[in-house]
Design a protein that fits this description.
Layout lengths: L8 E6 L3 H13 L3 E8 L2 H10 L3 E4 L1 H5 L6 E4 L3 H13 L3 E5 L6 H14 L3 E4 L6 H11 L6 E9 L18 H17 L4 E8 L9 E7 L5 E7 L5 E8 L2 E5 L12 E6 L2 E6 L5 H15 L6 H22 L1
Parallel strand pairs: 1-2, 1-4, 2-3, 4-5, 5-6, 7-10
Antiparallel strand pairs: 7-11, 8-9, 9-10, 11-12, 12-13, 13-14
Helix pairs in contact: 4-5, 7-9
Bound molecules: NADP nicotinamide-adenine-dinucleotide phosphate.
Length: 329
């Protein structure tokens, strides 16, 4: 076995997930300070095929990868209900962890894992990538500059067409359902853009397709000062990935808000009494930015996210649980 180049983080991957193969593994392979060292699968053939595509080592079974001394960090894109147990095992094995969203399906478990990472002096991050895209900072600055007057409300939606039969999103035991899969995005947008103190005022979860899990839903959140967030999510719908911020004097619209491809040039639309104008921004690769933030955290020994990011992660977990409770009430 070869020693890693100085400053290079050797990643292993648990499971040949679609999101790993489509977005994250190519970005890891392209990152200057990451070596995609190994890919594990329950299926040796799938491990071999996926690993080969990136010049990585195939590993048969997840436990073996956990025990691999030539891996520093693990990326865990397993079904949501399996995140907690494998994140915990990875931390116990002494690996830094980048876990797919949602980090867990239970806020108490999320807090316990973050505490464990802190104690073990290991980095733990949840892979919510859109917050690393600069377009949301640009929007935040516009709101702060009073471009739309006094902020009144956020309207955010993430909806996708129905996944194929047999998809993990339709399996309740694997943590399926639209709320934590797609609803997480508008919830995080609310937390990210409106800040702390959001409460659930009402929520609906529906199984529009008779799948045994919620396939769509909506939530109304409110801040103590009355600013509201109307959130829509679904996985039996036409595609939508956008938010609008409405103010006393205008409105800002961001399309392709949550999963823009690397080459997408954001076009932020600002509308007010004078008409509509478009602010064009440079393309950014939010997957590469997320990985860069992770490697920087490892270099800096920042085991859990710092202040605002940690507050957002926990608020997101609490709100997802509160939306489920409100919808059941
Ligand atoms: N951050 C993002 O932008 C983003 C986007 C999409 C999805 N995600 C998240 O990524 C995770 C995976 O989503 P995905 O759509 O990529 O899923 P997927 O293609 O179904 O992959 C899940 C992987 O988990 C492994 N696995 C282990 N036990 C399993 C079981 N009992 N049933 C099914 N698979 C099992 C499988 O790998 P092996 O068979 O190779 O072991 C499978 O390839 C989810 O948490 C999802 O929320 C994040």
């Amino acid at each position: 076995m070869t020693a890693p180049a100085a400053g290079v983080l050797r990643f292993g991957v648990l499971g040949c997930a679609d999101i790993a193969r489509r977005r994250v593994l190519p970005a890891m392979a392209a990152a200057p300070d990451i070596e995609l060292a190994a890919v594990a699968s329950r299926s040796p053939a799938r491990a071999a095929e996926t690993a080969r595509a990136h010049g990585a080592r195939p590993v048969s079974g997840y436990e073996r990868l956990l025990a691999d001394p030539d891996v520093d960090a693990l990326y865990i894109p397993l079904p949501a209900a399996l995140h907690a147990v494998w994140v915990e095992a990875a931390l116990e094995a002494g690996k830094h962890v980048l876990a797919e969203k949602p980090l867990t399906t239970d806020p108490a478990r999320t807090r316990a894992l973050l505490e464990r990472a802190r104690r073990r002096k290991l980095v733990l991050r949840e892979n919510v990538m859109f917050v690393h895209h600069g377009q949301h900072r640009a929007v935040g600055a516009m709101v702060g500059d009073g471009v739309i007057g006094e902020l009144r409300s956020l309207h955010a939606a993430f909806t996708i067409p129905s996944p194929a039969d047999g998809d993990i999103r339709f399996d309740a035991d694997l943590g399926g359902g639209a709320l934590s899969d797609v609803g997480l995005y508008p919830v995080r947008a609310a937390v990210h853009l409106l800040g702390p103190g959001l409460r659930v005022a009402g929520a609906v979860l529906r199984d529009t397709a008779g799948r045994g899990v919620e396939t769509s839903g909506a939530a109304l959140l409110r801040r103590a000062d009355g600013v509201s967030a109307q959130l829509t999510f679904g996985m039996d719908d036409a595609y939508r990935s956008r938010y609008e911020l409405w103010g006393s004097e205008g409105r800002i619209t961001v399309d392709r808000a949550f999963t823009p491809p690397a080459g997408h040039r954001p076009r932020i639309v600002v509308e007010d009494a004078a008409g509509a104008r478009t602010v064009e921004l440079a393309a950014e690769d939010q997957v590469a930015a997320t990985l860069a933030a992770f490697t920087a955290a490892v270099r800096g020994g920042d085991t859990v996210p710092a202040g605002g990011e940690l507050r957002d992660l926990l608020a997101q977990a609490d709100l997802l649980a509160a939306i489920r409770r409100a919808a059941a009430a």
